[in-house]
Design brief:
Oligomer: single chain
Structural class: mainly beta
Strand content: 35-45%
Strand order of the largest sheet: 1-2-3-4
Largest sheet: 4 strands, antiparallel
């Protein structure tokens, strides 16, 4: 039996751009949503802790201008990243609060990133890897 678990604020033309399962918490996943086609430039990132039965919006601290979230990667417990049109954001508490992770990275669109051991590598779909951080 199918059950619609879509958050009520996600109307037609809301585009789910990425879903990432937690690497440390069973049943936890993050979904990034883009609504710029509706002239809605807010950041929409949702978290589920019950295998998708319910979703909570967790984008506090990601500014409106960074609307197009593309990936939310889970690293260590509580640590996740979000790629946006305006750089990378990091949360140390499972997405409850966010802060920019600029360091020496220019303010640019980040399409994806990879956590490899203690390194974080970001890239753009059409370009070579341009960012590299050591934690």
């Amino acid at each position: 039996m199918e059950e619609n678990v879509t958050p009520a604020e996600l109307t037609p033309w809301s585009k789910v751009t990425h879903i990432e399962a937690s690497h440390s918490e069973a049943g936890t996943a993050y979904a990034a949503v883009d609504r710029h086609r509706l002239d809605d430039y807010q950041a929409y990132l949702y978290r589920t802790r019950d295998f998708g039965k319910s979703w909570q919006r967790v984008s506090s601290g990601i500014p409106k201008a960074a609307f197009e979230l593309r990936a939310g990667r889970s690293g260590a417990k509580g640590l996740i990243y979000a790629c946006t049109e305006k750089g990378v954001y990091v949360s140390f508490n499972d997405g409850d609060d966010w802060q920019p992770l600029q360091l020496n990275l220019p303010m640019t669109s980040v399409r994806d990133l990879v956590v490899h051991e203690n390194d974080l590598v970001g890239g753009h779909v059409w370009a070579v890897v341009f960012g590299y951080w050591t934690m």
